[in-house]
Amino acid sequence: MPLEHAHVYRLGRVPYRDAWALQARLQQRLVDAKRADPPEALPHTVLVVEHPPVFTIGKSGDPANVVASGAELAARGAEVVPVDRGGDVTFHGPGQVVVYPILDLDRLHTPEGESLHDLHRYLRELEEAVIRTCADWGVEAARVAGRTGVWVGPDARGDERKVCAMGVRCSRWVTMHGLALNVTTDLSWFDLIVPCGIDDRGVTSLERESERPAAFDTVSDRLLVHLGERLGLALAERPAADVERENLPA
Predict the structure, then answer these.
(1) How far apart are the C-alpha atoms of 69 and 66, rounded to whole Å?
(2) Is 164 among the residues known to form the active site?
(3) pTM summary value
């Protein structure tokens, strides 16, 4: 299958609400373009960001899974933001590679030629890209049945522990939100929540599991390679300042 073109923007550290609003604008542009007469195939977009500390709760989330008090959160400089993705509560913060693919799944296929017009299959491909990235650091990661995301273990170090959380939203088969891979994340933040509503498993990071140094840019480089391969994308890096000026309908 021919590769689809996608623009990649590395935005650095961005407040969560700003990144969310940007995703929504980019998603709507893709939706409007495919609704046009005749339809227009704009490039897909992939945002790579890091967030200041924030907890987000998905549409099916339980606020009780934020176990810290408002005072504790304020003291640590974090807020809780209800969002329109799937999933429960998770943490975003420094040392975590966050990738937001804004993609028209109607136009995408796996390397094996299978359509990605299937949210479950799309999530499995996101997981596969993360699993392969972890393998680049000598970390054996995998899926756990019934639990979206990527996990390490069980092994000599303990039970399953999540290294990457995922949650997406789709409109007219155009995605937003995505994945958050813990690289050098301060894992003590997760003590303030029941991550993803799962109270019998832990959380980990690539740095903790690997014997190799794990740096944000190096890990995000490899993750983008694997995402491009698994989603059938030809990725082109673009200046961050152009993210609002590009990807516009003609």
Answers:
(1) 8
(2) no
(3) 0.95
